[in-house]
Request: fold
Amino acid sequence: MTLTKAHLIDTICNNFDFPKNKSAQAVESLVEILKSTLANGEDVLISGFGKFCVKDKRERRGRNPQTGDDLMLGSRRVVTFRCSGVLRQKMNGRG
Reply:
């Protein structure tokens, strides 16, 4: 099962007795903070969970799969995730 924003909102609403609209507002605010921080090129560290890192990829050669023509793919930024040791242990049943 994939965890969705709607599921997060319902969980917050049920576990903490928040109204649904306040739960939705909290989740949306958190997502916006994460997106704007990453868009500014800053990393996001959530203790006990992991770290979202912004990496710069340089331009590289690629190939159009339909035509087989060579082309240059432009430079770009990507987000990577490294889970914390605590999360890794929990996922492997040791925590």
Q: What stands out?
A: Residues 41-95 form a domain with the HU Protein; Chain A fold (CATH 4.10.520.10). The radius of gyration is 19 Å. The chain has a mean pLDDT of 94. The longest strand covers residues 50-57.
